Amino acid sequence: MLYKKSTAIILSLFILASCFLIPKNSHADLASDLRQQINDHNNTISQLEAEIKQYQTELDKTSTQAQSLSNAISILNTNDKKLAAELNVTNQRITSTNLQIQELQLQIVGKKNDIALNRLALAENIRSISKSDDQSIIINLIKYSSLSEVWNAMEADNQFISKVKDHVSIIENLKQGLEQNVSDTQKQKDVLVNLQKDLSNQKQAIVANKNQQTLLLTQTKNKESNYQKLIADRKAKAAAFQAELNQIESQLNLVINPASIPNPKAGVLSWPIDPPHRVTQLFGDTDFSRTHVQVYSGKGHNGVDIGAPIGTVIKAAADGVVKGTGNTDLACPNASFGKWVLVEHNNGLSSLYAHLSIIEVSAGQQVKAGDVLGLSGMTGYSTGPHLHFTVYATQGVEITSRKSVACNGATYTMPIADLKAYLNPLLYLSSDYQLYL
After folding, report:
1. pLDDT in tens, the chain (437 residues)
2. What is the CB neighbour count within 10 angstroms for residue 225?
3. Closest C-alpha among 151, 163, 152, 153 to residue 127
4. Pairing of β 277-281 and β 433-435
5. How many Cα atoms sit within 13 Å of 288 on the Cβ side?
6. Which run of H or E residues covers position 13?
7. Which of 3, 58, 245, 251 is the most buried (most CB within 10 A)?
């Protein structure tokens, strides 16, 4: 009976094994081909990343030059090429990730194949031991002519048992490897989902950059004189709007408990963009705010500006909740923040992200540090693509809707703050930044 059961086990495992078996040569060739394709795509990604780095160098150089129509167009054209290269990189990574998933799935099939083969060998060993166990030591003593032959038979049984243990150990190790492959496959699928989101964002960024190019050429009719007049008009409108805002904020007298604000130290907040971090305007009473007194009214710069080509991913600086989003251009074009997001954090601070081209979140949404809030741009009053990043004491900032005399009585919605609520963002960020003033 035991023999028949062992035979049934062997046949069942043989059938199971046949479901997974792939010829060894074919399996190895397929694995080698997948690995080569992955390497080829990774090499292409490295080349494209070098190209993107070169575009960024060109953007950094152009952004420090005198403000002119030709420079503005050059920035947008270079950014267009950079965005196209970034889109290509994402497509390459998507393909490479798909290939890695196929490679992992191939490894899974291989391990299942090896497990099935080891189960067959294990079943054969069990069958042999079962046959041996049917013969007692007394029978062996009668069967064999000498005691040494009995010991040899028993030693053979021990070898069978040792083989069983070996196969069990091999199967356990293969199962652990199989579980790891399955886990790695899921991680790669998660990477794929994020890459698909990146792809969608990059396509939106390309559209935003094209729209900015079209708007610039429409407004200036490709004439330098028209561009300079456009810049002058924007400065005048921004100055009038800022004067209104300064008057409102100087009259606020919100209660701010100093104990509610974390001590200034690096790392309290994370940078809202990936490195390298290019700070193009500092916080407070700066040379820039003094030389642009018509815009800043001698009140200083209420945040830091971070160089960020149109379409750069903007991330939450800490955990919190989105208190609001808006677009001041709807009421007062080119005069203030443009598209903005305000996040209230769990540590007594709030942060503002302005001049965005795309907003990806909505009011009331919970966010974690590093979550995508939107894409950078140059909406509102902006002389070039960048992120305006402001940090407030939460108790001193509120989102308000008001009519603007400077904007012909149009109603705008945006954060306003008690002047003492403005904090220097660089006191809460890591010092790994470069100044491009």
Report:
1. 444 444 444 444 444 444 444 566 677 888 889 999 999 999 999 999 999 999 989 988 887 787 899 999 999 999 999 999 999 999 999 999 999 999 989 888 888 888 888 778 777 767 766 665 555 545 554 555 555 554 555 565 566 667 667 767 777 787 888 889 889 989 999 999 989 988 998 999 999 999 999 999 999 999 999 999 999 999 899 989 988 998 898 899 899 898 999 999 999 999 999 999 999 988 876 444 445 433 334 456 789 999 999 999 999 999 999 999 999 999 999 999 999 999 999 999 999 999 999 999 999 999 999 999 999 999 999 888 999 999 999 999 999 999 999 899 999 999 999 988 999 999 999 999 998 87
2. 10
3. 163
4. parallel
5. 14
6. helix 2-20
7. 245
| Domain residue spans of the chain | 2-208, 260-435
CA angle 133, 134, 138 (to 5 degrees): 90
Classify residue 105 by burial, with Cβ atoms within 10 Å: 0-12, 13-18, 19+: middle
Torsion angle in degrees (nearest 10) through CA of 104, 107, 109, 115:
-140
Give alpha helix (H) positions in 134-260: 137-143, 147-220, 224-251
Alpha-carbon torsion (281, 411, 208, 202), positive or negative: positive
Residue with tokens 């490479």: 96
Kind plus residue range of the DSSP H or E element containing 24 = helix 24-63
Considering the entire predicted model, what is its pTM?
0.76
Contact between 416 and 245 (Cβ < 8 Å)? yes
**Is there a contact between 188 and 142 (Cβ–Cβ < 8 Å)?**
no
Gap between the Cα atoms of 340 and 327, Å rounded: 6
**Number of helices followed by number of strands (H, E) in the chain:** 8, 13
Question: What SS3 class is residue 357?
Answer: strand
**Start-to-end C-alpha separation, the chain:** 89
**Phi, psi torsion values for 34, nearest 5 degrees:** -65, -45
Cis peptide bond upstream of 276, omega within 30:
yes
Residues 6 or more apart from 37 whose CB is under 8 A from it? 99
CA distances 224 to 60, 67, 288, 378, 382, Å, are 22, 10, 24, 19, 18
Spatial separation of the C-alpha atoms in residues 75 and 59, rounded to whole Å: 6
Residue pair 426/282 in contact (Cβ under 8 Å)? The answer is: yes
Asked if residues 377 and 338 have their Cβ atoms less than 8 Å apart, the reply is yes
CATH class, 260-435 region: mainly beta
* Residue 131 φ then ψ, to 5°: -60, -40
